[in-house]
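Why run this: before we spend reagent on co-expression, it is cheaper to look at a predicted model of the complex and decide which construct boundaries make sense. The entries below are exactly what would go into the expression plan.
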Amino acid sequence: MNSGDSTLGKIAALFLMTLLFSGCASTNNNPEDPYEGYNRAMFTFNEKVDKVVLKPVAKTYKKVTPSVVQTGVGNFFGNISDVWICANNLMQGKGEDAANDFSRVMINTTIGVLGIFDVASEAGIPKHNEDFGQTLGKWGVGPGPYIVLPFFGPSTARDTVALPLDLYTDPWGHVYPVRYRNAGTAVRIVHKRATLLDAEKLVKGAALDRYQFMRDAYLQRRQSLINDNGKTGDLPQYEEEPSNEAPKETPASSAGQSTPNEKTGNP
Amino acid sequence: MKTLKKILITVFSVASLFAAGHVAAQAGATEAPDVLVKRISSDVLASAKADKRVQNGDIKQIRALVESRIMPYVDFNRTTALTVGPHWRKATPQQKEQLMREYRELLIHTYSGAIAQIKDQQLQFRPFRADTSATDVVVFSKVIQTGGREPIELNYRLQKQASGWKIYDINVLGAWLIQTYKGTFNTEINKSGIDGLIKVLKSKNQTLSRSKAPRK
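The model came back. Tokens follow.
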């Protein structure tokens, strides 16, 4: 109990320091990230908390728990998430996807024994990734500034506004008694963290600046999720730079020259 | 009888050699982007599954695999140029060479973990649609994972060139490689120039190869 208290105390102190010092360094002027100073500080805070509390637990969970159990846990909470995913697909006017989500919940809750087995996926009804932030995006709400939330991590103004509704509508939040709910939520968070261990290793290797790498990848991923992986929406337009080696017959080869560059021109 | 059999076998094998050569030549000339990507990916999957050293994360072996199976179909010059952005124009040929080498090394390090983990994953391709006149296309695929995990979206962007279609950008889980690195590269260049970026990439790669060394 004692060690738990001191950990909490340390986190609280770290949190306060983060807020205090967040006003300081602002390095870049990325238009999508006006609060970079605060965001970087919060990013570091989250990483530290994760390192002390969540990551060790997630690592142990991954090592100790049989993979069948891990799959079951993932499927169980995945099935619960499918309810709100279905609602979001409906709100986005994707009737077919919503119908699929509905069948998923029906099949997995019954044949899949309360969702422990993802029978629907094996039957060829794929799982979707939706939340209210994506629904707002589909309705035309822009992301707004990038914001790193304490504990939740990368987000945007739009996704932050959507988050309380995502949390509230989750069926697990209405389970009683509360101590079962809390225990389940803890398992769910640990499981989620465990599934990210490999991706985290990849990011650590790939990134020159982890903060910037995560931000740039996150913002793109959100947009891609809203567009349902390129089914709608545009590809990034890179500035064409005709190389001197390979001659290319691209019609817009002089486009790079005429486009004013925002980043380099800044003082 | 025996000699007749031998002759027949010889004739057949020579004929099939010619046929194979013909098919290969045709494929090189007009192979569609989705066909190309499918061929490369199944080739890489098969090679990775068959090679114990690749599965153990042997970086040399993975580099060899990447060089022989993937790089011939990649315009890495273009990838690097687009990632570096307008500064590319100002780089000397030597700097360009160094940038390309270090960037590629970074990517090999990054993806060696993923390649080493190839086991029973399956690839699923979305039906490919593009104008016949298109010179810039995307091939969409998904890596289906086992154990109740969400599939990984993996998309390829290709450009039509005189020598055939060439991959120049990939998208993992919604993020394009070039777009993701562009910001960091530019921050480094604005801070300490192209040589500064090369230095950062070099030291990153050194750290990575050191940390990979003790793996069994």
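Chain A touches chain B through 52 residues (CB under 8 Å). The radius of gyration of chain A is 22 Å. Bring this page to Monday's planning discussion.
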